[in-house]
Amino acid sequence: MTDGAASKESVVHDASELEQRLTRARAGGSEKARTKLHEQNKLMARERIARLLDGDTAFVEDGLLANNLAGDLPADGVVTGIGTLGGRPCAVMANDPSVKAGSWGARTVEKIVRILETAERLQIPMVYLVDSAGARITDQVAMFPGRRHAGRIFRMQVRLSGQVPQLCVLFGPSAAGGAYIPAFCDAVIMVEGNASMYLGSPRMAEVVVGEKVSLEEMGGARMHCSVSGCGDVLVKTEEDAIAAARSYMSFMPSSWRQPVADAASVVPAEDAPSIEETIPSEPAHGYDVQDVIRGLVDAGSFFEIKRLFARELVTGFARLDGRAIAVIASQPRFKGGVLFVDSADKAARFINCCDAFNIPLLFLADVPGFMIGTAVERQGIIRHGAKMIAALSQASVPKVCVILRKAYGAGLYAMCGPAFDPDCTLALPSAQIAVMGPEAAVNAVYYNRIQELPETERAGFVSRLQDEYREDIDIYRLADELIVDAVVSPSDLRGELVRRFAVYASRVRDDVPRHHGNFPT
User: Fold this and answer.
1) What is the pLDDT of residues 105-158, one digit of tens each?
2) Residue 432 — pLDDT band, cuts 50, 70, 90?
């Protein structure tokens, strides 16, 4: 056979066929599958990407023709590529739930691994738009056990962690091993009613452990955002989820080597009450620290993380005179602001994320300390408290600690008190710093003496001792001893913070030479 004959027998593809294949791949799954998504108030994968990315910018897609020889697997059920988000490049992975429920095959996994490798090479953020029923069991040999199979995704996520921001937006299920994609991200946004994540389905739980439970109870969005802490932001609609994702990413740099871009300065909300009006003088009276935050940060800028989880501590991002900061605040409105196991975990995770991506930390302390008692000791509150303290001890971004009203016991340590290398410790004039409050301290030290006194003399004796104790911990004495760096009027606090974060921006970040620490987890 001559070369010419071989050429005549070879397959020739024209531009028309290419366009047909591309159109079929972009269309997604069957009309029936697309209709079902619409009935569930879900967007198609490419619609989600288009809404996430900046308008009128190009999306560079890879692997569009993956598995194009199989008529029912357009793009093999996942869209991967690079677009522009907030004016800078961003890598995106989006499951296509119209293609076999967004399940994973061999090429699905390869596409995900490749976009993760690309994000690392380019040092750009990675956003996961997840809606997947998990692995295709029929393809398990081709996508589960090997070197570049499903496990490689999680290995790459861990490798990327702290290099570039990773955000997961969960629109539907994230099942079985796939549930680790959100678990390894810096934050997880979940759509109530549709989003879920679980290692075993309710049907599997019933068969294996004999437990009858609904999907919502076991792995629903509200449960994960309020009970397990696996979810960070709960939203009502997909549009809300995408808006939240864009807002979250505005507080992130492109990579760990870069600062967060500044925004235009905005004054605080006009309807925010003054700090003097908000904080009661009595240490035990509750109030909403959100009002304090609103009075300090640029109007409309506060983006709360884990709002429904461990509510005795508030964590979130904000802008202060246009500068991105992170806020960790005691919340006396819930449980008096006492730190529990979950709030310590919440803080540790948030501090680590902020330190990884160069976001300064503002601590607003009004904390009675850590909770005590049999229940929390059995839950390991010492270990979890140590986790929080280890996180802030390692953090080398600018840190400012403000004592709003009180900081007692190890609560002072956990909220970045003077011993933990804050750039400064500020206090309001009514603030107290002590091992414990006057009432508890007098009772602890003088209990037996009090009991020996006649009933009529006890109240006066206790009152006198408490007054002496208050003099001992007076904030001006602490300023005299250089325990606090400045006592600031509530009305001047925002201006003081603006000035200090501006001058602390050049803080040098030093690492302790070692492989890594071995802290409680």
Assistant:
1) 999 999 999 999 999 999 999 999 999 998 898 888 989 999 999 999 999 999
2) very high
Task: Report pLDDT digits (tens) over 498-519.
Answer: 999 999 999 998 888 899 899 9
Going by C-alpha positions, the residue among 467, 483, 465 that lies closest to residue 475 is 483
Token pair 């591309």: residue: 22
Cα(500)–Cα(316) distance, integer angstroms:
20
Tokens of 10: 């070879």
Nearest to 413 by CA among 439, 434, 443: 434
- Given this model, what pLDDT does residue 192 score? 97
Query: Tokens 């997909």 sit at which residue?
Result: 238
Whole-structure pTM value: 0.94
Whether the pLDDT of residue 1 is over 50: the answer is: no
Total Cβ atoms within 10 A of residue 405: 23
- Distance (Å, rounded) from C-alpha 247 to C-alpha 86? 9
How many other CB atoms are found less than 10 A from the CB of residue 15? Answer: 7
Q: What is the C-alpha separation between 320 and 394, in angstroms, rounded?
A: 24
Question: 385-388: long-range contacts (C-beta < 8 A, 24 or more apart)?
Answer: 385/339, 385/344, 385/410, 385/414, 386/519, 386/520, 387/344, 387/345, 387/348, 387/519, 387/520, 387/521, 388/339, 388/344, 388/345, 388/347, 388/348, 388/351, 388/414
Which amino acid, 174?
Answer: S
334: left (phi over 0), alpha (psi -120 to 50) or beta: beta
Report DSSP letters for 182-216, one per residue. Answer: HHTSSEEEEETTT-EEESS-HHHHHHHH-----HH
Torsion of CA 202, 207, 209, 212, to 10 degrees: 40
**Residue 282 in contact with residue 291, Cβ under 8 Å?**
no
Q: Which letter does DSSP use for residue 515 in this model?
A: S
- The answer for residues whose C-beta is within 8 angstroms of residue 221's C-beta and 6 or more apart is 170, 190, 191, 192, 193, 194, 195, 196, 231, 234
The three-state secondary structure class of 21 is helix
Question: Rounded to an integer, what distance in angstroms lies between the CA atom of residue 183 and that of residue 175?
Answer: 12
Encode 28-91 in three state secondary structure: CCCHHHHHHHHHCCCCCHHHHHHHHCCCCCCCEEECCCCCCCCCCCHHHHEEEEEEEECCEEEE
For position 4, what pLDDT does the model report? 52
Ramachandran angles phi, psi of 356, nearest 5°: -65, -35
CA-only gyration radius of the chain, Å: 27
Q: Which residues contact residue 328 at a Cβ distance below 8 angstroms, ignoring those fewer than 6 apart?
A: 313, 314, 315, 347, 350, 351, 361, 362, 363, 364, 415
How many Cβ atoms from other residues are within 10 Å of residue 271's Cβ? 9
Scan for tokens 């995770």, then name that residue: 349
Element (H, E) at 453: none
Per residue in 209-225, pLDDT (tens digit) is 999 999 999 999 999 99
Which is nearest to 354 in space by CA: 400, 307, 308, 411? 400
